[in-house]
Automatic annotation (TrEMBL):
Residues 16-112 form the Cytochrome oxidase subunit II transmembrane region profile domain. One of its GO terms (molecular function) is copper ion binding. This is Cytochrome c oxidase subunit 2. It is a multi-pass membrane protein. Binds a copper A center. Its main location: mitochondrion. Residues 113-251 form the Cytochrome oxidase subunit II copper A binding domain. SUPFAM superfamilies: Cupredoxins (SSF49503), Cytochrome c oxidase subunit II-like, transmembrane region (SSF81464). The lineage of its organism: Eukaryota, Fungi, Dikarya, Basidiomycota, Agaricomycotina. It catalyses: 4 Fe(II)-[cytochrome c] + O2 + 8 H(+)(in) = 4 Fe(III)-[cytochrome c] + 2 H2O + 4 H(+)(out). One of its GO terms (biological process) is mitochondrial electron transport, cytochrome c to oxygen. It holds the Pfam family COX2. It is found in: Mitochondrion inner membrane. GO terms for cellular component: mitochondrial inner membrane; respiratory chain complex IV.
């Protein structure tokens, strides 16, 4: 009975890009939920403004066509009231958009007492990761490289140009700090479903944080033009339960 319930009611998430996709991937973090909510709010204003401008243009073209009103344009003067309206109204709209935008921006920049830190380094053309909070039996931090799986080696269920040989494994419901940099040129660490996008600059450390709220595999790609194989250095983050994460850590020792 439990299996049947799971099959019928277990949600299916979109954590990877789909053909002709124009919307957001399903969010797995508070960050992307905030981005989606802000997008929907701004889109509301966009629809209202678009309808208003289209109505005004259509009204002008219909009512003030030269064949219908051949001389009206000669006696039209500037209207102080209408100019005040179309100047002050956009200002209020921009203020209504600005406050939630700044709030979300500051929240995204905040790194709140991370429980663990992962260092991501962009190379031409692969990623390397370091779990600096954990050490193996030799007393060294856990490090590995992550390359894209060639199309000829893909197995059933793996995604072309997105799956990698070594995924970044992280626990859910944990504050995770990503420290990123570039080894050669500027790369960009971007995972849409997690709301992550941060530049990896050589000689500089940038940081961001994430709190993943559900298990799953989340895919991303380098989002900065970094060379001829820019499109072949994907990112795969696998969020698992704490028990599975501890088991994975044991296997890395």
């Amino acid at each position: 009975m439990t299996k049947l319930f799971t099959l019928l009611f277990n949600p299916v998430y979109c954590d990877a890009p789909e053909p002709w996709q124009i919307g957001f991937q399903d969010g797995a973090t508070p960050t992307l939920e905030g981005i989606t909510e802000l997008h929907n709010s701004i889109f509301f204003y966009l629809v209202v403004i678009s309808i208003g401008v289209a109505w005004m243009l259509g009204s002008v073209m219909i009512n003030f066509h030269r064949r219908k009103s051949p001389i009206v344009y000669k006696y039209m003067n500037h209207g102080t009231l209408i100019e005040l309206v179309w100047t002050i109204t956009p200002a209020f709209i921009l203020i209504a958009i600005a406050f939630p935008s700044f709030k979300l921006l500051y929240l995204m920049d905040e790194v709140i007492s991370p429980s663990m830190t992962i260092k991501a380094v962009g190379h031409q053309w692969y990623w390397s990761y370091e779990y600096s909070d954990f050490v193996n039996e030799e007393g060294e931090s856990i490090e590995f490289d992550s390359y894209m799986i060639p199309e000829s080696d893909l197995e059933d269920g793996q995604l072309r140009l997105l799956d990698v040989d070594n995924r970044v494994v992280v626990p859910v419901d944990t504050h995770i700090r990503f420290v990123v940099t570039g080894a050669d040129v500027i790369h960009d660490f971007a995972i849409p479903a997690l709301g992550l996008k941060i530049d990896c600059c050589p000689g500089r450390l940038n940081q961001t944080s994430v709190l993943i709220q559900r298990e799953g595999v989340f895919y991303g790609q380098c989002s900065e033009l970094c060379g001829v194989y820019h499109g072949f250095m994907p990112i795969a983050v696998e969020a698992v339960s704490l028990e599975k994460y501890l088991s994975w850590l044991d296997s890395q020792s």
